[in-house]
Amino acid sequence: MFSSPGAVAIHIGPLAIRWYGVLIAGAVLLGTLLAQREAVRRREDPDQLLNVIVLTILVALAGARLYYVAFNWPYYRLHPGKILAVWEGGLAIHGGLIAGGLAVFLYGRARHLPIATYLDILVPSVILGQAIGRWGNFFNQEAFGTPTDLPWKLYIDPYHRPAHLAGFEYFHPTFLYESLWDLGVFAVLYFVLRRRLEDRPAALTLCYFALYSVGRFIVEGFRIDSLMLGPLRAAQVMSALLFVLAAAAVLVRLRRPPKV
């Protein structure tokens, strides 16, 4: 059993530094260093890659927030001042992937960059960042699962429990499940597939989408705060769609001759 120490990492006068922001900043820094190292290895311009990273991060964060706000519009329509409060949580990864991917594509087209290669350079950093960022849910006591009495159960303060589960104290730590899965996907992409698929641009990116989607689909089934598409969980719908498309595309890509 474990519990969150609180959302605030440190107070500096009236300023509160939140763990969510610290984790995002740390994930961005580590991911950038990792991607630039890979760019150098592939003989791509690391400065140009840095431009792509900065643009992609800004667009992805905006997309992740807008996606989340759109699915929770009845609340944010009544609390418009909360729309920009990303430090309180509320970033939907699928919104970030859509917006970030579009940013890489459009910028790459405009600059005549090898888009598939840039995506392959970035995806290990992306999944590593997701693994780190998920711990923000732990500190914020959000995105947890159904009640449980397992040894690794997560204690949730009464204030953060939904009304219909107010009588329960312990819940599935879905942030931990997804973080561990993401770390596993990172290990497969970076240490197993990265060099093997280097001569097949976009194959590594497709593997990322397929592998991540499997874990997200499973973990989403435990959550009690899912964004919904009618009776369906939006993340499961998106994950299933991404898995089918990515798996089919990577099989097609692997059957084609490798890039010389």
Outline of the structure:
The chain is mainly α and 260 residues long. It has helices at residues 19-41, 46-71, 73-78, 93-111, 115-133, 135-140, 174-193, 203-220, 234-255; strands at 2-3, 8-12, 15-18, 154-155, 170-171, 228-229, 232-233. A hairpin with a 2-residue loop joins strand 2 and strand 3 (15-18).
Largest sheet, strands/sense/barrel: 3 strands, mixed
Q: State the low-pLDDT regions, or none.
A: none
Percent helix, as a range, is 55-70%
Q: What order do the helices and strands follow?
A: EEEHHHHHHEEHHEEH
Return the domain count: 1
**Count of alpha/pi helices:** 9
Q: Helix/strand-derived class?
A: mainly alpha
Radius of gyration: 19 Å
* % residues in beta strands: 5-15%
Q: Using DSSP, what is the number of strands?
A: 7
- With strands numbered from the N-terminus, the spatial order across the biggest sheet is 1-4-5
Q: Tell the overall outline.
A: globular
Kindly, what is the distance between the CA atoms of the first and last residues, rounded to a whole number of angstroms? 53 Å
Mean pLDDT: 95
Q: Can you characterise this structure?
A:
- The protein has helices spanning 19-41, 46-71, 73-78, 93-111, 115-133, 135-140, 174-193, 203-220, 234-255, and strands spanning 2-3, 8-12, 15-18, 154-155, 170-171, 228-229, 232-233.
- It has one domain.
- It has 9 helices and 7 strands; from the N terminus they run βββααααααββααββα.
- It starts with a strand and ends in a 5-residue tail after the last helix.
- The longest helix has 26 residues, at 46-71.
- The model has no long low-confidence stretch (mean pLDDT 95).
- The strands form 3 sheets. A 3-stranded mixed sheet has the order 1-4-5, with no helix packed on it. A two-stranded antiparallel ribbon has the order 2-3.
- Helices cover 61% and strands 7% of the residues.
